[in-house]
Every structure is written in structure tokens, then in C-alpha cells.
Amino acid sequence: MRNTGGNGAKGAGMRVVILCGGESPERDVSLASGRSVARALLDLRHEVVLVDPAAEVPVLAGPLHPGDAVAEFAVGKEPPSLSARHESRRRMHAALTGGPVLELLRDAELVFLALHGGWGEDGHVQALLEMAGVRFTGAGSGACSAAWHKGRAQAVVGAAGVPVVERVLWRPEAGEVPPDVKRLVTDGPVVVKPVAGGSSVSVCRVDSLAQLTQVAAEARSGDGALMVEPFLSGREFTVGVVGGQVLPVVEIELTTAVFDYTAKYQPGAVSEVCPARAPANFTARLQELSLRAHQDLGFGGDAYSRTDFRCDSHGEPMCIEVNALPGLTATSLLPLAANGAGWAYPDLIQRIMDLATR
């Protein structure tokens, strides 16, 4: 059972704790999402406490009340360093399992998860909240875990009939490059990315075995594994699902080879079009595939997700990943899709809350 606990009814005037920041390479994105969510909740007349469980002083702001201001947070061009990740995780675990932060969470009528990546998206935080009986937004620990590992997630959705590209998992520290990886690179180009990660951190195009060796030495991956897959040269799309409702398709018009971290979070780096300029039967197919991926990975009617697609040279869309806690910054894709459905940003945030409290 998930999202249990709490006594508040849905609607205005709830006590909400927002969890953001965390220990992953997506920390800056999460801090920006948390502040965007806080402003929306205040506009909706809720009381807000903003918490970064990985920080030395975890309560960033609050309690905040309607009319209070929330400072902006700018996402940098590069993800933050992971040099202190072990200590950040220690603080995060301590905050979520005892002491004043846990008491704040238990006292809240709802915990809004604006964490991205790492423990915030792989099911760790969700499992801790479930064990503590704390109600929270988004998917439960099982669905988050299933979506987080790209290799396993693609195997699941592929078995359900969602088209996926060939992929090979590789641990560079294991030594020699496996034959299947060499074959893909030789037939290349390929895309190399962490098998567990988000916000396009450390995603790059590779055109040669020499370049692959360099990328492997520099790559940062949560569990040490990389995924190598053929580079798809076609158009890129993303589709959000909120509860059981599929949002309009967004097309990501790239000026770079891949939709990397810098392009994703710097305003004006790419053009994002919603609704996508594509035939109705094509967009309907993307929406149907996104809902299928959402459901087959275990996302229920109380959760939301965003599924990313890239087309091959023949225009056939391939699912490249499913995001359990997609970004909620001012430039994020899910809010853009929600706007295409006629929802203002606060409407999206309230709908996410309503899914968790119904």
C-alpha cells in the first residue's frame, strides 16, 4: 500500500512539505523545481515548508504562507559535483528516518516530491516515506525503481509492445570493451548514457572506439553501468501522463546531436513545440504508447510520468526512457505539455496533489 497516512482533505489550506535538492547530479534542477512548486502552492493558498534532506540545514524556507515570496534558483550549465555524495546521502537518510525533518513530514498533510534523480527517483525516498506512513505525491517505490533503471525499463515496455532500440549494458571498470558494444560503435554512431540517471546527465554521442574509451573514463553513473545504443537520427518527442490523462505531445527541436543537460535547462538552447507539428495519427500513437509504458511499469492512477521518444531514420518512434519524477522547473517539459492541455502551472501542481489525496 502506498501514499498512506495524513489526515487532511484535498483542497486549499493544506500543510505541505516539499522535498527537493537531494544528492544526485540533478540536485540543482530539483532545487529549482522545489521553488517553482512552492510558489504555485502558495498561489493555491496552501502552507509550505521547503526541505532539502541532503543539506546541512535541511529546512530551506518555511513555514511559508500565501503572499510570502520564494526566491528563484538558477540551474547551472553543468550538473553539480558528486564529490560529497556519500556525506549527502548520510545526511539524507538521517533526515528521513528520524529527528525534526521526519516529524515535519509526519505532521504534514501531504509531502510533495520535487526530487529528481538518485534516491529521490529510484524508489529509496518513496520506500522510506511508505514505511513511515507519510502520504506523498507521485508513484510509489516499486514503479520508481522499475522506471529508474533504463535497461530494465526498456525490457519491460518492449515486452508490452512499446518499440525500443537495441541496447547493451556495459561496466567500464570490468575491463575490455564487450564485442556487442564494439559492434554497435563500429556500425555507429551510438549514444552512451548512465543506465540509471536523469536530466540527460552524462549523455553523449560517440562516433569511434577511441572516443568511447574517453567517455567511459569520464562518465559519472549512479551504479557504475553505462548503456550503449544506436544513435537515432530522427525527431524527438515527449509525452506526459497525469493520472489516467495523456497530455499533448511535445516535440523537442534540437540544435545539438542529443538533448543533453545543458540544452535541457538553459532557456533558448532548444525549441520545444506543443502541440507537436505532426500528423494526428502519429501523435495519437505516441500518446497510446506513453500510456502503455506508464501502466506497464506500474504507474497507477495516482501517479504521473513522462515518456521520451526518438525516431529512427525511417521516422519510427522508439521509447528511450520513462521518467517517474519529471522536472517541474519553469522550462521543464511536463509543465509545457500541461499548458498545451489548457492547465496553468498551478493547475498542474494541484492535479498532482489531488491524485495523491483522493
Which key features would you list for this structure?
six-stranded antiparallel sheet; four-stranded mixed sheet; about 350 residues; D-amino Acid Aminotransferase, Chain A, domain 1; Rossmann fold; Dna Ligase, domain 1; 3 domains; globular; about 20% strand; alpha+beta
Task: Describe this entry's structure for a reader.
It is a single chain. With 358 residues, the chain is of the alpha+beta class. The chain folds into three domains: 15-137, Rossmann fold; 148-164 and 232-345, D-amino Acid Aminotransferase, Chain A, domain 1, CATH 3.30.470.20; 168-230, Dna Ligase, domain 1. It is built from 13 helices and 14 strands. The longest helix is centred in the N-terminal third of the chain and has 17 residues, at 27-43. Mean pLDDT is 89; it is low at 1-11.
CATH superfamily of the largest domain: ATP-grasp fold, B domain
Strand count, sense and closure of the main sheet? 6 strands, antiparallel
State the total count of DSSP E strands.
Answer: 14
Give the overall silhouette: globular
Beta-strand residue percentage: 15-25%
Fold-level CATH name of the largest domain: D-amino Acid Aminotransferase, Chain A, domain 1
Do you know the CATH architecture of the largest domain? 2-Layer Sandwich
Average pLDDT, rounded to a whole number, is 89
CATH class of the largest domain: Alpha Beta
**Radius of gyration (Å):** 20 Å
Counted up, domains total 3
Helicity range: 25-40%
Give helix and strand order, one letter per element, not per position.
EHEEHHEHHHHEHEEHEEEEHEHEEHH
Structural class: alpha+beta
- Uncertain stretches: 1-11
